[in-house]
Please model this.
Amino acid sequence: MTEPLTLVQPTPRARVRAMKEYHPPLGGRDALRLDFNENTLACSPAVRNVLAGLSAGDLTRYPERESVEAMVAAHLGLASAQVALTNGVDEAIHVLFEAFLDRGDELLLPVPTYTMYEVYASATDAHVIAVQAADDLQFPFKDLVRSITSRTKIIAIANPNSPSGSMATREQIVELARRAPHAIILVDEAYFHFCGETVIDLIGKSSNLIVARTFSKAYGLAGLRVGVLVGPVESMQWVRRVLSPYSVNSVALACLPAALEDTDYLAWYVGEVLAARREFETALTAAGVRYWPSRANFILVEIGPRHKDFVQHMHSAGVLVRDRSNDPGCDGRVRITIGIREQMKKAVVAINEALTLIRSKDGSR
Model:
């Protein structure tokens, strides 16, 4: 006689049950996408040409990353052994934390910042030590230094930071690496192209510095999910033990060289965003909206108690923006991605209309 199937469900690890959940609001985004800091226009035409030339047979083979990693390493002025391509910068963060965070370790995290640092850290047995920025949302360097202990294992710095757009200086990063030689200093340069400042030239010169980059933002390859993690050879050896050899897909590997080689398109898009950012700041000032000066392709603005209404009004006008009120110290604040100038003119019209509606209901001017 066949035994009946059990109805008892397998139980995941306690750490997984305790993990912070993250549900990005990605559904129904058929509008002007100023909510996720993506390239708001298109990838390079050279990438589209590569996509058009892919055959069905190209998709039958497992991805081979070594030659593309070597190309990326040369592009960054590094050795191949210092470079690992990843499935977006998210996987870079995930594998780094899995490789180095152990029971009793501490992750120092300046907040507010990118949500996934805390999410991935919560899957380990480490403790997250949040270091709150002041109201100006500048990098809390002094408080971060005071928080370093013998248990500090990783200090994660988004540079420029999201949602604030502020930056840690090169000198601050170097000083943190000096004061915490037993810890990894992770510098996430996802928005590097919009600020032009990097510490990637210090890779190999500092034994505890690791840098992450993504090709989802300026390059416009968010849908292909490709990022890169770079660091000292010794550290990257451990990262590679955790990293899947097939996590970066063949389409991404085929397109990445074309994206990197088309420097003219990249320079044009970044130039458009920087020009649009300057014009947008002027428009915000004219509208009487407080904002935080940004070095990235987004700006955080102060909306106040009616932030949800503002986001809804913008959505109704065909413009998506991101409510960041749940971030530490960001109640009432909304992050707006900067696209090209033509797109931002539409956004300014929608913002002024939304503010007029909100202020009329509040009885304020």
The longest strand covers residues 152-158. The chain has a mean pLDDT of 95. The radius of gyration is 22 Å.
